[in-house]
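Consider the following input, taken from an annotated entry for Linear amide C-N hydrolase (Bacteroides uniformis).
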Amino acid sequence: AQELQSLTPSGMDGLKFRAKHGFVGLAVEQKEFVVEGMNEKGLSAGLYYFPNYGRYPVYDAAQRDKSLADFQLVSYVLAECSTVDEVKEALSQVRVINIDPRSSTVHWRFTEATGRQVVLEIVNEMMNFYDNPLGVLTNSPGLEWHWTNLNNYINLQPGTLPEHNFGPLEPKSFGHGSGLLGLPGDFTPPSRFVRATFFQLTAPQQPDAKGSVFQAFHILNNFDIPTGSEQPWGKASANVPSAPQFTVACDIRDQKVYYRTMYNSNISCIDLKTINFDNVKYQADPLDETKEQPVEMKVIK
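Applying the prediction step yields:
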């Protein structure tokens, strides 16, 4: 088993841990910062920005041997745990820290192979775990706030509203889906949470895992943020990547990680069952060989 170590504000001298389970993840900035992934036991984990609401314990150099950087928590959990209960136990033994005080805090989502999911938020230096049967999470505010906010949308329903006369007028729906009039369409985390909730709850049951994965990507297509739409008028740069830079769907029962990137909308898949983790070292490979969308040319004869 390979030994890994967490960063601290003073360098690579934090918590050491030996990987019990092999995992595959997608990282940002550097290979240690895995933000979404799954291990060979079917445990999936991801992190989401949590600005202005989270507060970690202050870094204490005297406790650096149990200090774990927030952006390495996903790697730690995937290497150490196979169930949600194991996640709770493992994290009770560590101090989650921020290695750069300028960075936003984050919160995390963990889903085990049975489908059980919990969310971790560290507020006022205290860990809070929430069972999340809804299975939806976005950025700030906290999960319980998002649940409360759903009370504002109890009028929403799938399908088309029935005709309803306004006195002598007989208005009719312009088209299908009028039951969701009022569904928020902006890119803020609260609005994305509401949309994700309704899209998930109204998604039809699929006959197999692959169908569920592709349906997940259809849902997640609604959360692509076009470059420039979050910037002030005239301030958008063509070199600034859109968000999200990649989209992931995990088959937790068959241990497959599917993803696409902002540069390549074709879906790629990594089958963890085909990896001999005893022979594979911790490594990083680029998601895109080229930052250009491949196009399949069709020839008309």
